[in-house]
Each structure stands twice: as C-alpha cells, then as structure tokens.
Write a structure and sequence with these properties.
single chain, alpha+beta, nine-stranded mixed sheet, nine-stranded antiparallel sheet, globular
Amino acid sequence: MMTSAEIRQKFMDFFRSKGHVIVPSAPIVVKNDPTLLFTNAGMNQFKDFFLGNKKSPNPRVADTQKCLRVSGKHNDLEEVGVDTYHHTMFEMLGNWSFGDYFKKEAIAWSWELLTEVYKLDKDRLYVTIFEGDEKEGLPKDEEAYNEWKKWIAEDRILMGNKKDNFWEMGDTGPCGPCTEIHYDTRPEANNNGHDLVNNDDTGMVMEIWNNVFIQFNRLKDGTLEQLPAKHVDTGMGLERLVRVIQGKQSNYDTDVFTGTIAEIEKITSKKYTNTDSKQDVAFRVLSDHIRAISFCIADGQLPSNTGAGYVIRRILRRAVRYYYSYLDYKQPLLFQLVAIIAKQFENVFPELDKQKDFVAKVIKEEEESFLRTLEKGLKRFEQIRNNSIKVFNQNVLSMLGIPSVEIEKELGAQNFVSKPIQQTEIFQQNVKKLNVPSERIALAIQINLVNLVIRGFQSFELNDTYGFPLDLTKLIAEENGMFIDEAGFESEMRQQKNRSRAATAIDTEDWVVLDEHALTEFVGYDVLETKSKIVKYRKVKTKGKEAYQIVLNATPFYAESGGQVGDTGSLSFGEGWGEVKIYDTKKENDLIIHFAESLPQNVDADVIAKVDVSKRKATAIHHSATHLLHAALRKILGTHVAQKGSLVNEEHLRFDFSHFAKVTDEEIKKIEELVNEKIRENIPVVINEMPKDEALKLGAMALFGEKYGDIVRVVVIDPNYSVELCGGTHVGATGELGFFKIKQETAVAAGVRRIEAVSGKAAEELVNEQFDTIRAIRESLKNPKEINKSIDNLLTENSDLKKHIEHLEARQLVGIRNELLQKDEIINQINFIGTLVEVSSADALKKLCFDLKNHLRDFVVVLCANIGGKPFVAVSIAENVAVAKNLDASKIIKEQIAPIIKGGGGGQKTLATAGGQDASNLNAVIEKVKELL
C-alpha cells in the first residue's frame, strides 16, 4: 500500500515529467491581500498571474499547497471531526498552466495519473462538466465533453450547473468552466453511483480533483469576455486522494492521521474506535486541529484576539474543549503532538520541524490560559442552561394547568432543570392523567422554545469573559438541546466593535483603468525620483474622508512590506497640472498602490514620482540596524533566535524574536556593543540578486512565513556576520547608522520577546533627551560631584522618614483605638462602634479594625474617614455575630454602603472596605449599618 508521502511524491514526479516546475507551498497565512486571512486554495499564490498584475516565469508549475478553510464561505469548522472528510488545514495538490496547455492535456493527464500511476478503479470514477447557462449565454462545455469521451464512458460524464461547474475568483475577474472528478468509495459500489455525484451526504461518493479552465473575464457590469490567454488551475485534496488509494472509509484511517491518533491514545490512555461517539470525535478533532494550529504559528501567525490570530485561537480552544470534556484530560495536550507532526512533514514542509520547540511553547501557554477559564465558563453555561430550562418547564406546565411546584418536588430541584420537562416520565404521566390533548402540548412547547435559546448577551458574555468563541458555545448548546441567538450575539459584537470599525472601515470603488496592459515596475532601489504614468486609480472612503488609490507603471515608492513602512512623497504633473501628495504606499498582492488625498486635474499627464528622501533615509537606517540587531541576538543569545515580526520606520525599529527568557541587562549591553562595533567598522552593505537555492547555500537567513520567488534579494553585511533574504531598503555602509541604542525589551507572547531600538538621528535625539534628564536631576540635587551617591542618600533619608512617620502613626492609632473603645454601645446584645475618624490612609482604617478585634467581643464596627475629600469605609464583624445575625461585611459594603458613597469595594465576610466619590454621607453609612442590627 502506498504511503501518503509516496502518493504526494508520485504527483510531483508525474507533472515534472510533463514539463512542470515544482514550486514550494506559499505560507498558510496570507500577506498583502485584503481579501484573505489564509491561503484557502492552491491558486492563491498565483492570483497575480490570473489578474494580469504579473507574468509567471514558468508556464507550467505544480505544487502541494497548505490550505486552511475555517472562515468566510469556506467554513468547514463545525463538520471537522464529526464527519470523515472535512478538515481545517489540508494539502491541495495542483498543476497549473499559464497560457500554455489547456483542456486536452489537463484532462488526459488527470486520467493518466489516476488510472495508470495510482491504479484507481476506472469503474468507480465519474466526471462532471459544465452544462451551460442560458441566462449567461454560455453553451455546454463541448470541448471538455469531447476530451473526456476519449477516456471514460459517456454515461459517466455528468452535467453540472453553474454553481458546481463554473469557477469564479470573485464578482469580477478571471473565471471559467471546470470539470470535477469523483470517486465512489462505497464497498458495495457497482457502477451505480451516478445519482450520488454532488448528492451524497455520507461523503462516500466524493470529489477528489477539480480542473478549472480559466478562459473568461467577468466585467463589473456582469458580462463575460474571452481572455487573450487561457489558463488551467487544478486542485486535488491529498487527504481524500490518500483515503481512496489506501482503500479507507475515513480520511482519519489513513497514515496522514493514524500516527497522531496513536499518540493521543498514548497520552490520554483512551482508545480510538472509529465511531460517532464524542470520544472518537475528540480524537479526530485533535488530530486535525493540531496541524492547522502548528503550521499557522510556524508561518508567523501567533494566536490573538483579532484577525487571523483569533481564528487560530478559536481552533485551539475548540480542541481544548474536546479533550477536556470527552477525553477527560485536564492539562495541556496539544503541545505534546507538535513533535510528531513536525516529523511527519519534515521533508515537505520543513519550517515546522525547524521551529517545533517554539511552536510547542506557544501552544502550551495558550492551552494553559484557556484551561484556567474553561471550567469557570462551563459552570457559567450550566447556570444559563439551568435557568433557561427551569423557565421553559414552568411556563409549559403553567400553560397546561399542571402545578410546577409538585412536579419539581417529585423530580427534585436538580432534575427539574436537567432537561426540558416534556422528556420526563412524570410529565407524560400528568398529561395522561389530566387528559391533555397532544395539540395543546405541542403548542405549549412550541411557544416556549424561545426559553431554550442562549441569548445574544449571554453568548457574548461567554466570549468576552471566558474566551468561548461563538462556535464553541453553539457546540455546547446543541449538545444540551438548546439553540444560539446568533443574530443577538452578532449585535453585541457589533456594538463592541463599532468604534474601531468606524475608524478602519474602507469603502472602495471600482478601478478606473487607463492602461489595461501595463505592469507596475518598482525602481526605488536605484532612484528616488522617476518619470511615470498613471495605469489605474480608484476612489476610497475612510473615516468619512475621500481619498484615492493610484497605480503607476513605474514607481520609486516602496510599498509597506517585510515590516518596513510604505514611502511618502509626491506626484508632480508638470506646469499647470499641480502636485499630489502621497501619504502612504501599500501592496495588494503584488500591486503597488499609492494613497493620495486628491487626483490630478489630468490623469493622462506624465508624472514625476518623488519619494520623501529624509524619511526614506531614516527608515533605511533602521532597516539596516534591524539586520545588525538580528545577527547580534543570534551571536549573544543563541542560534535559536528567529525573527517573529518587525516594524521599521523613520522614528525607530521594533523587532520580535523567539527566545524563552527575559534578555538580561548584561546581555542587552553586549548586544549594543556588538552592533555599535559593526557600525564603527563601516562595513559595506552589499545587495545581490540570485537564485534562492544559491542564496540559501551561502547561509542566507529566510524568514518563516514569507513567500520568496525563484530569484531573491540577498543583503550581506559581512559574509561572516549577517546574510539575509530581504526586499527592504538599506544604507550603503553601516557607518551611516552612526549609533545604535536599545530603548526597551519586553515580552510579546509565549516564547516571543520584543526589542525597541533607535539608530542614526533618532539615537542622537534619544541620547540628548537622556542627558537633559540627567542634567535636570543634577541641578535639582545642587550639582553634586557623585550623582548616584546623592540619589542613594536621598532614598535612604526618605526611607528613614517613612519609618518615623509610620512609628508616629502607630502611636496615633493606639490613641484613636482607646478613644473608640470608650464609644462602644450595646445594640441587641452586640457591641457596636460606628464613627468618623481622622486618619491619613485607608490602610489605617483596616489596622484600627484589626486592633479593635483584640479588645472586643460580639462586635460590629464601622469606621469612616474623609481622606483628601474622598470617603473611605471599613466594616468589621465578629465571626460569631456574622453567623448568628447572618451578616456579611463584603455584602454590606457592596449592597448597602457603596451606593451611598458612590463607590465600590469588597473583602471577606468579617472584614471589608470601600472607597468612593461622595464624602458628604458618611454619617448615613453609620446609620445604615446600625439599622442592620
């Protein structure tokens, strides 16, 4: 039996033999594409070729692509683990033709690979083609039909509608018909799977390969035009293909997952039995989710509360909940699986194996964090559930005239809220005894189903307070026979996010295209000013303001990428046509977009594009400093250090890196010394372009999660010190940096540290600020010879004075205590002291309460103070009095006192304190406590 690795390799070898160049997978986390968070299809990395923004260096390519589908229209998360064939992360095998071969070759090669290389049973294969669409004016795909007739019986060529067999990138853009290949995996299959193609809920007759023929362009008015070049875009899910070839009934029974499942069995001491039980679903969920989590983190996306990071956190928390509830495992588990996943994919996706310790640490910390709140969240859900079921049960019984009190007594209070009442035998007995018509029962149940809904604000609370993503709450609700008010939840989320969304929302109009054949050329490495033309532009609205996005056929403006901010500057259109300020430059895929507040009067005029030189220079200084810092970190801290994020602008640099401990002051000093040594050496910064493989042989460092082309840009600052792949802008020699200084070092996430630093003029300004501060301190201390000694003397003197004051306050509190003991009054056999006292701090009130406790029996004490115009209160109660009178100092503070002084507080049952804003009602506080006695 072929292994999954052999199946993958045979695909690559086959298409290599057909003249295809094998390219690496793009990162699973998408950058520079506002329409995507993750790579969800093999075509994503080739999008620019289809859009015409870029020309492919190779007309034929093939690859295996890491994909993730858990958001947007491709959201399979709820099915993952429940069925046998949906996944979060999956591998998409694909072959591509960019204006080269078309339907004849694609179809012939598909059949050859499946039947001659993989030896699939021809009698289990079916194909679909596009049947045409009268409304679109599209005929049946006769070309694909005729090609398939050469290889497969005509009755196995099935017609597919526009939904299934016409692929579109979006509302506009490249599109075309497709042909799907399906395989019947049913053990009893007997040439009778025709009706189950695209119509089998069991997943036994399933699509394994889709060949898309991109031959049209969808215009914004909806019409279609023929493309000058036709392309082939195919995708075949490896997991499904392996299942078919290995003859399994579930993807999870293949060697793609069996190793992980075996490891979970070993860790949990539970057995996987391949059933629909919650325990077995948990095995499948974990074996799937750990792949998505691990590869996303390895590609640079840490779990967080926004964007792609939130998706990863959702997947991770779903997995935690499954092993916590159904495998009875109450400690971090997922991180223990990283090593086995890394080993499995070390030869195809080596980035995980190289970072397995880092990835495991990040996952473990995320698990520990969620496990701390999971139990509390489940208890809160139980409270919500019990209350909802109780209301449902009471209302149903009331409508049917059955006394709820009697049934609750018969069932027991706990059982009364454990499930909806109609599911109990006692309910059935009562409706039978009372001869209640079934129509009335159904109506009562139907009317009150609203009470079995988790309200929007409740699911929002579970999300906001306990970290439960909505799909996790929905899952738990369904297990308890309840529903989720998703619209209510979304409303709550909208209210929370309205402000931030309003600040970032962008309303984008269609492109106005002036030259549809022009490609953008970046010339900004060599020049900061160039002559150009506008290729296209569009209007956008942000924060209520109109702006414009402009694309040039040649530009010196660096677009935000690799942590370096986008250039600013101007576009000049010659005498009489004015100048447009460019306030930012960004990438959309590989398209360089210039952001401007206005358009020129004549968009067809020649343009002089000019970058802000001083900003670019300061930014380049910080980018080169980042390379020096990265190399220094690896030399001082160890070669485990890898970049995990950066920000480079004219003001400073910010560098995130993998490291498992705080960088010590001594290490910081060594790092600074090494960087500044390299600056003083005035090392030339040498930049070359070369094939990627050649660059890696030179020892060039590539960043995990970045997509590199065949030809890469290598930045060398001393071949023995720093060699990195980098698309950013740099200085000519390190001496231009002048000086380097680290401002601070902090933690960002598990295993990730952050350094903020400055170089060049920004470093000079920082040093001047620090000297100004020291000068001011020296002047305040009357210009001592030894400033450190003067500060130490000042601190010692301050400490001595504090101790003296504390001694005096202690003596004062003894005097106040003795006075208070004289004010003791008896109320219902309780010693009560309630008064205003003059003290300097809220802590003094607590000290007085502790002191009085040693001199009183059977007491209640309430002490109030006006300190700096703010009210403070302390309540102390003897333990025996608290029990006998059912008094709780914490509740008294929160419920009785806090509203009076417009504040808040809390504490223990026998001692609690409060602070507030209104000091005018302290006497009322004393009277309120007195009333309780």
